[in-house]
Amino acid sequence: STFKFYIDGHNFTVISTDFVPIKPYVTNILNINIGQRYNIIVHADQPIGDYWMRADNQNACARITQALDIKGIVHYNGGPMSTPTSSGYNYTGACVDEPYASIVPIVPLNAMAANKEIDETVVIATNAQNLYRWYLDGTTFQSQFDDPTLYGILKNGSVPNYSGDLAIEVPELGEWVYIVIESPIPLPHPIHLHGHDFFILGEGRGTYNAASSPALNLVNPPRRDVALLPAAGYLVLAFVTDNPGVWLMHCHIGWHTSMGFALQIIENLANIRSTIDDTCMVTEVCDAWNKYAGLDSTSGIGNENSTINGTTSNSNGGTSSRQIMFDSGV
């Protein structure tokens, strides 16, 4: 869901978004989505007393029980140290990011024209087993704990075989990759990329059209690693290929990821091995997991986010192999 964070009666200064330092700006309510991080300086300039600190769930995104009762208490020294009686701010409930005009990185970096563009349309549909899955351009992502991509690269020096288009190779360094994500469904999604801070070039309602949509912002646009795909809208992101690795990009709503809303970017395959200090450690851990997990069906250990036999249904009823780089939990 989306939350509005604030402390009754107080302002604060926002100084970073997802650890990217920005030009400070002052607000009294912070819009925060799943996976996002902010550094703020609270202005403790109110009369000595006790105040509610609130994280109001926005029911327009997802309803929860007691959505407005997610609270902590801020006590001033010398105050009564009692249950606050302060009142919350009035606002219009909405599923939004912080205004992008407010997020101005201190270190200015401009975006360049795309060397590669990735377009993904997000829909939800049933698969051959009549289970609901998220699909990106007709393919749903399924993690394979018995054959993660990085493991295959380190063991064999090549990318495992894939079906579909959710393992995207960008072999060259120093190139600009644009990712255009669109969804006709009236539900927002926090989009997270591992391995990079991305540039937020544009977002809006409806579908993106380079000729008719508002011009992309290439001049020191916001940089962070989680941005909100608007409900029934689009998001245009960009990054530079400067970090060899296998990077997951996914909706940060956990059960949406489990339902297939993810893809992975295999960046500069030729140099991935050289960035890892101890490739034996990685492969030995995976070998040990395979043995422990009982792929010989002796232990009975499984994972609801994976399939042991290595196949999943795609939108046309066939099967497709899916590999994944493990999410660190960030």
TrEMBL record:
One Pfam family hit: Cu-oxidase
Superkingdom classification of source: Eukaryota
Domain Plastocyanin-like: 2-76, 156-268
Residues of the signal peptide: none
Similarity comment: Belongs to the multicopper oxidase family.
Protein name (record): Laccase
Native species: Cryomyces antarcticus
